[in-house]
Amino acid sequence: MPYLNRLIEGYHRFREKDWEHERERWSELAEGQSPRVMILSCADSRVDPAQIFDARPGEMFVVRNIAALAPPYETSRGFHGVSAALEFAVTQLKVSEILVMGHGLCGGCAAALTGQFDETEPGEGHFIADWVRMLSGARDEVKARHEALDRAAFLEMEREAVKVSLANLRTFPWIAERERAGELKLHGAHFSISEGKLYVLDEAEAEFRPV
Asked: Which residues constitute the signal peptide according to the record (predicted)?
């Protein structure tokens, strides 16, 4: 049976329960959206921000990609999907907070650390390799601190990726300006799949702490 059939069954359950329960909310959302926070999360199927944060419809503007990465600010023409989403959230929706949420057992971070897709041909992983190349500096630092690529090394890579994204976000002039003016706050977090725990980054201390 095509998986689409299961999706449609889920849709019917949504119509009967969640949509009916939040009918007034959906009526409000039909007039537009005004989320206060943007979540930049990984595309990994195990880390759905709406589920983790028990969010209501329209509460969060969510962008998901490999390893929850924010690219640096670039002015070249092209297809800048994440940058376009950031621009829309910050300048049009005027969100007041952005949360970058990495996670445990992240395949994208593992690929960056191991170089799994380096030197691959088109169709075999070269898009992934190009994307996670944003983490090359962090990878070198993690490798320098770990003789073996054990679980501790992968965890550190996942958390360093969050810091890289936060640094990249601050290269966008309209993000940096709003942060300096106190109109926008940036946060980092790491969700541990094995523990079901969220760790929030204290940037002043450069530490992730459970909440």
From this structure: none
pLDDT tens-place string over residues 76-99: 999 999 999 999 999 999 999 999
Query: Based on the number of CB atoms within 10 Å of its own CB, is 31 exposed (0-12), middle (13-18) or buried (19 or more)?
Result: exposed
CATH 3.40.1050.10 in the chain is located at 33-210
Q: Give the torsion sign (CA, 87, 91, 94, 98).
A: positive
Cβ-contact 153, 64 below 8 angstroms? no
What band does 52 get if pLDDT is binned at 50, 70 and 90? very high
156 vs 72: CA distance, rounded Å: 21
Nearest-angstrom CA–CA distance, 159 and 80: 24
Place of tokens 């939040």: 22
The model's pLDDT over 147-175, given as tens digits with 9 standing for 90+, comes to: 999 999 999 999 999 999 999 999 999 99
Is 90 exceeded by the pLDDT of residue 123? no
CATH node for 33-210: 3.40.1050.10
Element (H, E) at 205: none
Closest CA to 155 of 180, 130, 120, 192: 192
